[in-house]
Amino acid sequence: MAPIRVLQVMPAMDAGGMETFVMNVYRTVDRDKVQFDFLYHYDKPCFFDDEITRLGGRIYKTTVRQDNNLPRYLRDLHQLFAAHPEWRILHGHYSGFGMFYNPAAKKAGIPVRAGHSHNTAYEPNLVGTLDKLMSSRFSAGLTDRFACSQKSGEMLFGRDPFTVVHNGIDTARFAPDPVRRASLRAALGVAEGEILLGHVGRFSAQKNHPGLLKIFAALCAQDPRMRLVLLGGGDAEYVEKIRALAQELQIDDRVIFAGVRSDIPAFYDAMDAFVLPSLFEGLPVVLVEAQCAGLPCFVSDTVDPDAAFTDRLHFLPLNDTAAWVAALGQESFARDADAPQKALAAGYDIRTTAEFLQNFYLRRYKEVTP
Q: What whole-number distance in Å separates Cα of residue 290 and Cα of residue 292?
């Protein structure tokens, strides 16, 4: 019997937390039983395209986020859904455009339309305001709802019922490895005795890179051993603004812009602490990864407290630079050797998450298919 095919609806599949979560699930499900197809809202090459194709997935790309041509988008949706009657389940991760693709899917006869919340707030700008307005109509078009945390579900779905699904990772892959640590620190030029702080996240307003650099600059003034590595992609113009700020703060010789990398576990090994001063988050995959690697983690108090499964997670006031500097200045930078087991016990292993979603897809497919 051929596997059932589930359509995953995304903005695109660049390297990011939501995208990594979906790929973690995709790599782990039994693809002889469940296969994923992907609908993008950008027509461009993406970080995960090649892997999706290798795993047997099919990718369909629209241009609506580039040309804002809604009539064309709706026409494309109608034609796409009509051409694929095998899709009985749609799993939407892009809430803003759900007001368009959910009704189109329903009209085309796709009976299961699941939605997934991955965040707890919106960007504090015009785009975020529009996204909030559009996302307010997301829940009404759904038959099933998931969220990465209780807060993220309440934010997007209100009083509608939803199920919390942990952002699972391959806990074994992120277990600390001293050999990887020594090798990558040498490659990065981190000297013996230096303390390497790390951040993983796309370059965007949400991730608060300016705040991070200001915290780091104040920390450097107290401790010359400090280094910082930034991983992630994003708009080139915005990345250059962050580079310019590092120069302005006179810390550019201590900051490593590592870009988008596939060897993320090695970077966690190379780090001595993880820093995430985001303006808002759901339950970040990177924070699960960093904790699993045993790192002390310093995060803004806007992050969902349910993210903590080790005692190495420190919540700090978003706009209090002095509090961050004090907390980091007092840190011993010792790792939690039992962190992978704690992640497993807390339900953050990807095998648990993938099994839950696979069973959901198979059950719902059986319920709606004659």
A: 5
- Give me the domains of the chain, ranges plus CATH numbers: 4-168+349-368 (3.40.50.2000), 178-345 (3.40.50.2000)
C-alpha to C-alpha distance for 98 and 102, rounded to whole angstroms? 5
Inter-residue contact 131 to 123 (CB < 8 Å): yes
Task: Decide: 277 and 211 in contact? Cβ < 8 Å.
Answer: yes
Q: Helices in the chain by DSSP H: which ranges?
A: 17-28, 49-54, 64-67, 70-83, 98-107, 126-135, 150-157, 178-188, 209-222, 236-248, 264-270, 285-292, 321-329, 339-345, 350-368
Please say whether the beta carbons of 211 and 232 come within 8 A: no
pLDDT tens for residues 116-171?
A: 999 988 888 888 899 999 999 999 999 999 999 999 999 999 999 999 999 999 99
- Tens digit of pLDDT for each residue in 111-126? 999 999 999 888 888 8
SS3 label, residue 139: helix
pTM: 0.92
Cα–Cα dist 349/354, whole Å? 9
Longest dimension (CA), the chain: 68
CA 253 vs CA 118, 200, 271: distances in Å? 35, 19, 17
Gap between the Cα atoms of 16 and 12, Å rounded: 10
Give the DSSP letter string of 285-297: HHHHHHHHTT--E
Contact 275, 197 (CB under 8 A): yes
